[in-house]
Design a protein that fits this description.
The chain is of the alpha/beta class and 608 residues long. Helices cover 46% and strands 12% of the residues. The N terminus is likely disordered.
């Protein structure tokens, strides 16, 4: 990039920045990509981002149904030639509707969802290789939910009043990707501590309450309700990982219950087994007596039953069954006792299995940030490796790279620290893959990873944080400026989106028409020698006024447009004229994008 250092008239003097118009681009908008490119060529834009809203099967009949795969090889060639002839640089934006890199979907991290993201980004990579011949491929970040209040130790943000005492604590079962959430204001029952034990310093945690509970006169334990928030504070005090500490202690209560039930049913099963064994022995003894002719009928049966305790009470309806056939009666009783014992064993095993499963789950719990970022990094690095291989295969002259973009504050990846973390972890994962699978040196792999994973910073998306900020807008702008300046200095940002809003939603107002700190951000980019493109994104203008996004942006960042060619032109002349009236250099339109079959000039004078 060449920063302007000259000025063309006195109005240029004293400006903080003069960002060349050639470094300011526009996104094509929604709908036909080729038509969007042509429209921006007419506007004199020198960088155009071609993006898609569709995912899966494309539907070109619908504005939001276009996908990279909707465009044939011939159409891609036409776009490539159109950009090349007009010296327009292209970038690519994968659909924001493809899901997120971590695979978060419907309350779980799903491998199939993550793989679908890879497929969709690959489609955009292939399109970018064919049309842009390299450059950034933008994909949205919005990886998984997490509270806002924990992002700043100073307490700058809050999603809703008392979020710190109400927000969920999230953990992931890393075996399944299933997410468990527990609100901080959820109440749990714990024993009231024994006052004497408290005075003696024996009760220092919630666990100690179980060892030293207060009891009422009957000996029953006294209980009281506390909140998960209180358990969290205990974890912080003990310098333990909050998520694991809280969930482990809650799960331990269930584990202890299941262990107790496992033992109780096992004891009952053993008791039944003892009765069965005794019946079996007694039946064998009775059979022996009968063989030895020591058994003399009903009187002996009664005596035998009394002696060995196998006869039912004489007033029982089953007593006659015993007298008629003692052996048969005892065999039936044996089977009943054995069946009961086996059933009790199964119940005990069931509780044991549940206890074991819960213990495994407890041991496999992982904070959502750790798990989610790992998955995001794996996905982004896979996409970047694919882009790198495609770049080499097609012999592209510039890197084809992945450009993750910050998105909504409610989801991980939008805060500057989170944004940095994902980019860094993704580069580290790509570097590891290059070393392990391609045998690259560490230095070479590090450079390749840094060149092929760079963030897209959307200042409009960053401005969403304003609605959660606990302070005046001036302080927010200063804070955000400092955060983005750090990202710029650290080389995290490789691509920039410019749009405006009033800090609530992604309205895509023309830059300068909302309250996003755009000019301040661009000044920092300039100061730290940012080398990427600035892409203005239309969407919030009146129909037919999309061109004003480009002119507003040029004006906002001080692009030296006071003169075009040899004639002086004011911003009003450019912004409020119809195209062709304000003096501009001619452009060439080729293929089906041209008004006719012959190549024509901007003025439509035949080329002779």
């Amino acid at each position: 990039m060449q920063w302007g250092t000259d000025y063309w008239n006195a109005l240029d003097k004293g400006k903080n920045i003069r960002y060349p118009a050639g470094e300011i681009g526009m996104a094509h908008g929604i709908g036909e990509v080729g038509e969007g490119l042509k429209a921006n060529v007419f506007r004199g834009v020198k960088a155009v981002e071609l993006g898609f809203m569709g995912a899966g099967k494309g539907f070109r009949s619908q504005p939001g149904g276009h996908t990279p795969e909707s465009y044939s090889s011939r159409e891609r060639e036409e776009m490539r030639e159109l950009a090349r002839i007009n010296e327009v640089q292209l970038s690519t934006h994968a659909s924001p509707n493809v899901g997120y890199a971590a695979g978060w979907q419907e309350g779980s991290f799903r491998e199939e969802a993550r793989e679908n993201v890879v497929h969709e980004v690959k489609r955009a990579i292939e399109f970018a290789a064919d049309t842009a011949e390299g450059g950034p491929v933008v994909m949205h970040l919005g990886e998984f939910p997490r509270p806002l209040f924990k992002l700043e130790s100073e307490g700058k943000f809050e999603a809703y009043p008392d979020e710190a005492k109400k927000a969920p604590i999230y953990v992931v079962d890393k075996r399944t990707g299933r997410v468990e959430a527990l609100k901080r204001d959820t109440e749990i029952s714990v024993p009231v501590p024994d006052p004497e034990a408290v005075n003696a310093g024996k009760v220092k945690s919630f666990e100690d309450r179980y060892a030293f509970p207060k009891r009422d006169p009957s000996g029953a334990i006294a209980w009281e309700d506390v909140k998960i928030y209180d358990l969290e504070q205990e974890a912080i005090k003990k310098k333990e990982p909050v998520e694991k500490y809280v969930f482990s202690r809650l799960m331990q209560k269930e584990i202890d219950l299941e262990r107790g039930e496992e033992l109780r049913w096992k004891i009952d099963a053993d008791r039944e087994k003892e009765v069965f064994d005794e019946l079996h022995r007694n039946r064998e003894m009775l059979e022996k007596e009968m063989k030895e002719n020591k058994y003399k009928g009903q009187w002996d049966a009664v005596q035998f039953g009394k002696r060995y305790g196998v006869a039912p009470p004489e007033d029982s309806p089953r007593f006659k069954e015993f007298l008629d056939d003692p052996i048969r009666y005892i065999k039936v009783e044996e089977e009943r006792r054995k069946g009961h014992s086996d059933a009790l064993v199964e119940v005990s095993r069931s509780y044991g299995a549940r206890r074991h499963d819960r213990e495994k789950m407890r041991d496999s719990l992982q904070p959502i940030v750790e798990y989610g970022v790992e998955k995001s990094a794996e996905t982004i690095s896979r996409a970047a490796l694919y882009a790198y291989e495609r770049e080499k295969k097609q012999g592209l002259k510039k890197p084809l790279w992945i450009a993750p973009e910050n998105w909504a504050p409610e989801l991980y990846g939008s805060h500057p620290d989170e944004f940095r973390n994902i980019i860094v972890k993704s580069r580290e994962e790509m570097q590891k893959q290059l070393i392990d699978k391609q045998g690259m040196s560490q230095d070479e792999a590090k450079k390749v990873a840094s060149d092929h994973i760079k963030g897209t910073l959307d200042i409009g998306h960053a401005n969403f944080w304003w609605k959660y900020y606990k302070g005046p807008k001036e302080d927010f702008d200063k804070w955000m400026s400092g955060q983005l300046e750090k990202l710029t200095k650290e080389g995290i940002i490789g691509h920039v989106h410019l749009s405006d809003n009033f800090g609530y939603h992604d309205e895509h107002l023309p830059p300068g028409e909302g309250n996003a700190p755009i000019q301040r951000f661009v000044e920092d980019l300039h100061k730290h020698g940012f080398k990427g493109k600035l892409i203005a994104e239309p969407g919030g203008t009146r129909p037919g006024q999309e061109f004003s996004v480009a002119t507003q942006t040029w004006k906002l960042v001080g692009s030296p447009m006071y003169r075009i060619d040899a004639q002086s032109v004011g911003w009003t002349d450019i912004e409020h004229s119809y195209f062709g009236r304000a003096p501009q250099s001619p452009n060439f339109i080729v293929g089906d994008y041209a008004p006719g079959k012959d190549w024509t000039l901007w003025s439509e004078v035949p080329l002779e």
